[in-house]
Amino acid sequence: MCEHCGCRGVEPIAELMDEHLDLLDHAGEVRRLLDGADLDGAWDRMGLLAGLLTRHVRREEAGIFTAMKEQGDFADAVVELEAEHRSFDEALSDLDRSSPTLGADLEALFAELTEHIDKENLGIFPVAVVTLGADGWDTVARAHRQHPPLAS
Asked: The Hemerythrin-like domain covers which part of the protein (predicted)?
């Protein structure tokens, strides 16, 4: 994750980036539990990860994504990221605890999640920092008040 663009100095962006780290930490814990043959623990942790991801997506889409689209900047990139959010929802709902491919399915999901997070942290967030005006940041602040982060 980039630390030199100034994104972390903007509180709503820093919060989203921290949530990204938390999601990746949970993914790592799922991997560790699966490696230790703790399917129950891994499945429970996936439930927690899915809940955190849902809440995070709401914050992003109601805040920074809405602001970027309303401003007209990089709307195509935002639409692509929103489509990836829907893809995560589908992948999560398709997970089958009893499937012999569960480990591979989760690895594929985690790889996509990591790539998606990089697109946001290294792409849309730095763009937002330098392009959003006061109205855009008001939209972001309102969304963050309406959708506060959940403690992990």
From this structure: 12-127
Owner of token pair 């949970």: 26
Looking at the structure of the chain, the number of domains it has is 1
In-domain check, residue 1 = no
Say how many Å lie between the first and final Cα of the chain, rounded. 20
Could you tell me if residue 116 is inside a domain?
Answer: yes
Please report whether residue 5 resides in a domain: no
